[in-house]
Amino acid sequence: MAKFDDSRRNKYLSEIYRHARVAQVAIDSLHESFAAEPFEINIDRVFMGVQSFLASSGMISKMVWPAVGMVKDPNVREWTVKRKQILQEVLQLDDTSPLASRNLRNAFEHYDERLDTFVSKSYNTFMLDWTITSGPSVFEVLGDAEDMPLVTCIDPKTLNVRIMTASMSLLELNEEVQRIGQLAKDIIERR
User: Which residue ranges in the chain fall short of pLDDT 50?
Assistant: First the structure.
């Protein structure tokens, strides 16, 4: 097995930096979408921005908090553990980072399974899809209940997003993504 040297570490950091840039493009796209008049907002473009942001931030999360238990090969598992330790150390990360939480990431990645659970309930006959709504009341009322008719929603002012039972501020998450991305870039450039 190869030695986990700086050039190999920098490959991961380069990927993190790239995903951080893509995440920022997605956030910018959301802001542009919501700058339109309410009835002119393109919901497909909003969905694309959310999806792109979650995919990029999720990839960073996976690189820094990998599912070590899923790695079958013991040598690769050892590498994965080493990667996790090194990346968390150089990027100054611990489990308090919003990227450490897998709730929104898993809700997005396993959307089909969660949608099956939601739609298959006999009392869920009224369902709203990709709703744009402002104000904390929606998120406070819905909480993490699986029985609400609102499958997914986003607040155009705060970029708080709810997917099934998971919710998070994309702006807060993006602050962490951009901090990590900049740090990754700085480390790479020090070579």
Answer: none
